[in-house]
Amino acid sequence: MGSKTPLYQAHVDVEARIVDFGGWDMPLNYGSQIDEHAAVRGAAGMFDVSHMTIVEIKGSDAKPYLQYLLANDVAKLQEPGKALYTGMLNEEGGVIDDLIVYYLSDAHYRVVVNAATREKDLAWLENVAQQFDVSVEERSDLAIIAVQGPEAIEKAQSTFSDEQKEAVAGLKPFVAAYAGDLFVARTGYTGEDGYEILVPDNKAVELWNALVEAGVKPCGLASRDTLRLEAGMNLYGHDMDETVSPLEANMGWTIAWEPEGRDFVGRKALTEQKGNGIPRKLIGLVLDGKGIMREGQEVVVNDEVVGVVTSGTMSPTTGKSIAMARVERSVDAEEVLVQVRKKQIPAKVVKPSFVRKGKSLI
Amino acid sequence: MSQIPAELKYVSSHEWIRDEGDGIVTVGITEHAQELLGDVVFVEAPEVDSEVDVEDEIAVVESVKAASDIYAPLAGTITEVNEELEDSPELINSDPYGDGWMFKMKIDSGDLDSLLSAEDYAEEIADE
Questions:
Q1: Which residues from A are below 8 Å from B65, CB to CB?
Q2: Which of A263, A325, B48, B74 is the most exposed place for a label (fewest CB within 10 A)?
Q3: Residues of B in contact with A291 (CB under 8 A)
């Protein structure tokens, strides 16, 4: 038996298929993951992501602590509620986890990390915190509901009070605001517009049910995975991990090199890697034949294995098999072969961003 | 509890077998198997006229989530494959024992006794 979110019973009541995910009993789908995927691309769907770990960073050193802890620079965050995506690296420049940090004040930031990496993340946060005047406090009293899709904001707002609507009016992408009991962030992991809503545990079912009433379709982790892969978003433990630097995982844009004087964990290793030549890169693939690319399959150029698929699926929006693969940096072919089961099938090399705002980019 | 028609035979790798008489059987995957797989999006059918042995991997059913090998439940020769599945692989989800059938084969021996009954199969999946 795994941990359960406050919404667990609501999932079971509608016969969701429950699976273990990082020690949590989570809904995989509520029937058809393809229907759920389509709901998010075409209207609005929602995910229980309460298994994710919320951590409050508080204290007079909160800012310098996070500036040292994270590859991106929280000094970019000036307005309350503003969010930043970043890697948290080890000394070797490998990714311990990817996370979102929200600025609340110079003495208070909120960090949301992955569920599967919770323990090592908390240990690392605590470890680095020893050199700073900060407290690291996990919030286990909040659930998270991600409402995503072209109609997500409108439908979510229809469940809000007038005060709450006013609080989130004009909320820009990658910014969050308090709205009564809720903390509403215009973020997501699907390539669609929407909110990620932090809600007190004891109000989570009420909000979930109100969203169902408003026409938002419950979606499980299976569709969350196909949506994020279409959007070209990395999944920790698959597309990157502690043996992979952000430069090898399409996360170069999350490294703040300026100001040069800012030291952060992993900076030295990344600088060396840049100087010596980054050994590998993450590319997008679109299969040109029948079959489905899967994680672990080999990528072949001129009869040589040059890399491996890190995430692969059948993309419900495009009807094609899409994948991300990590290959040697020297690979500049427009087409590669992928060892799909017993056959080598050609695949086009593309930027790993396959679908955005409901539209195919491939 | 998923449906397990009493008139069919089964193997523990989740294929069902229908005796059509004259040494011909129809094979598909069970309702339980399609539930485990989720939405089926691709089927690689066996080759017609190929000779297969028991437990040979002869076909593949892929859902969005995973690929699953399909095994020959008996030795024999493939006589027909369900071509509908090429364009409509979701028939395996919607009608696993009907329009979602996968292939027919002429079996070497008319003996289906080695296969599981509906009751045996129900017990097997209950233990999973």
A1: 33, 222
A2: A263
A3: 42, 44, 62
Residue B123 within any structural domain of the chain: no
Helix (H, G, I), strand (E, B) or coil at B123: helix
Mean pLDDT of chain A: 97
Interface confidence, given as ipTM, is 0.83
- Test B38 with A222 for CB contact under 8 angstroms: yes
Q: β-strands A194-200, A182-185: how paired?
A: antiparallel
Total domain count for chain B? 1
State how far the Cα of B56 lies from the Cα of B47, in Å rounded to an integer: 13
How close, in Å, is residue A16 to chain B by CA atoms? 12
| C-alpha to C-alpha distance for A221 and A36, rounded to whole angstroms | 10
Indicate the DSSP class of residue B84.
H
Q: Tell whether B124 is covered by a domain.
A: no
Q: What is the DSSP letter of B70?
A: E
In a domain, residue B126? The reply is no
pLDDT above 90 covers what percent of chain A?
Answer: 98
- Confirm if B54 and B72 have CB atoms less than 8 A apart: yes
User: Which residues on chain B place their C-beta less than 8 Å from a C-beta of chain A?
Assistant: 35, 38-39, 41-42, 44, 60, 62, 64-67, 93
What would the two tokens of residue A255 be? 């490294």
Which CATH number belongs to the domain containing residue B57 in this structure?
2.40.50.100
Q: End-to-end distance of chain B based on CA atoms, in angstroms? A: 13
Q: Which residues contact A223 (CB under 8 A, 6 or more apart)?
A: A29, A33, A34, A36, A37, A40, A45
Nearest CA in chain B to A290: B42
Assess if residue B128 is contained within a domain.
Answer: no
pLDDT of B128 reads: 65
What secondary structure, in 3-state letters, does A50-97 show? Answer: CCCEEEEEECCCHHHHHHHHECCCHHHCCCCCEEEEEEEECCCCCEEE
Domain with B13, as residue range(s), is 9-112
List all residues 6 or more positions away from A314 whose beta carbon is below 8 Å from its beta carbon: A226, A292, A320, A321, B41, B42, B62, B64
> Which is it for strands A83-89 and A53-58: parallel, antiparallel or unpaired?
unpaired
